[in-house]
Design brief:
By secondary structure, the protein is of the alpha/beta class. The chain is about 40% helix and about 20% strand. Helix 2 runs parallel beside helix 4 and helix 4 packs across helix 9.
């Protein structure tokens, strides 16, 4: 395992506020897209980022970064350093998740004393990868709670033909195992799909320029979702994304209550569930949304065996 020093921000990095403004909460974002769309640049626009790179897509960016992790333990150590050591970083970027999955496979195989997880009997290796991924999300959640940092995960897109309502569609989805994607869908506040699109501007007869845009809603054509009722399409720009997130005001009290009721049975301790019930926050949608976020956080920490407050 690397003895990882805490990276310092480059001179060109945007300064971070001394403290996160009251009412703002850290964001858990997964961005995937076609090759060269600018995912790493989007992440570098976040406040005071530090990168954990399993690939060289961000090599051209002047950002703080940890040494390239060679093992799964290196990734976990980088997160530990950010959690417990003093620093001014406000965002951690994991670039990209395909490399993380590969390191996780190697870790599981090494722990089992085999060359590849396929050699582990009865497919148990893949189950262990899911468990390790759950621990990774638990460590990231603990980091969020300790440091109030944004977490951005970057991934690549692959096209897969699927059938929906007796029709075939080419769907852009993440390259990692679907069981890992399912965990990310539950944990992330937003899964964004980025691509180049032609914009209908310019003089007739001329090809319009190409824009880099992100889709925020689920489609048969791409993997995306969000908890903020975002516009379906946004520029691939961190400030535009955050502005849209901050503009969101939860109003549907019944929907918030329904989500809480669905999650409470999964809390491990009855006393904790009772506390949640006592903290219903009346009919205040903002407080209900904050409570829902705390419950999701506790579930992530409990599933990973992390301490909860």
């Amino acid at each position: 395992m690397l003895a990882i020093p805490l990276p310092t921000a480059p001179a060109s990095a945007r300064p971070a506020p001394a403290a996160r403004p009251t009412g703002e909460r850290p964001l858990r974002v997964l961005l995937h897209g076609v090759e060269g769309v600018g995912a790493s640049t989007f992440a570098a626009q976040a406040p005071s980022p530090v990168f954990v790179c399993t690939e060289d897509g961000a090599a051209h960016l002047d950002v703080a970064r940890f040494p390239t992790p060679r093992t799964w333990a290196d990734v976990m150590e980088a997160i530990r350093v950010l959690t417990y050591d003093e620093h001014e970083h406000r965002t951690v970027v994991l670039d990209g998740i395909e490399g993380l999955e590969s390191l996780c496979h190697k870790h599981v195989a090494m722990m089992a004393g085999v060359a590849h997880i396929d050699e582990i009997a009865y497919g148990r290796g893949y189950g262990e990868v899911v468990d390790q991924w759950r621990k990774l999300l638990g460590k990231l959640e603990a980091l969020i709670q300790a440091r109030k940092m944004n977490v951005i995960l970057l991934g690549h897109t692959t096209s897969k033909r699927i059938e929906v309502d007796d029709r075939l569609h080419d769907r852009n989805q993440l390259k990692i195992n679907q069981r890992l994607v399912d965990q990310l869908r539950h944990w992330c506040d937003a899964i964004l799909f980025a691509r180049h699109e032609r914009v209908a501007v310019g003089r007739p007869g001329r090809l319009p320029p190409e824009a880099r845009l992100v889709h925020t809603d689920e489609s048969t054509r791409w993997e995306a979702r969000n908890r903020f009722n975002l516009p379906a399409l946004l520029p691939l720009d961190w400030d535009d994304f955050v502005s849209a997130v901050r503009a969101f005001k939860p109003t549907d009290v019944m929907a918030l209550r329904a989500q809480l009721v669905a999650l409470i049975p999964y809390l491990q301790e009855a006393a904790r569930a009772a506390q949640v019930m006592r903290d219903w926050a009346g009919d205040n949608p903002d407080k209900l949304a904050q409570l829902l976020d705390r419950v999701r956080s506790k579930l992530t920490l409990e599933a990973a065996g992390e301490p909860t407050s």
